[in-house]
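[RESIDUES AND BACKBONE]
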Amino acid sequence: MPHREFSHLITRALRNQQGSVTIEAALGLSSLVIVCAAMIGGIATLAAQVAAIDSAGAAARSQAIGVDYEPPRGSVSIHTSDGLLTATAEIPAIFGPVQATAIYPVETP
């Protein structure tokens, strides 16, 4: 008889749905938070890419007319070959650093 009561308790506990809604809600909310965080990280990385493009273009234009340029964030390297200036900007972002390159002709006075 005790075995039968024990198996009845186990069966009733396994059939009990109480608490499953809480677990489903917790999993759903945590998944939503992860997706939102990934979206925010992606948007921030795209913003860093736009900033890198702007910084590379500004650095190349400034160097082409002979003015020094200091990027607001990140770093810029400039190389000259065959009358062309190549500026490469690198800016840190959430999913890794992003780079952009701009090429401008050297202006002669």
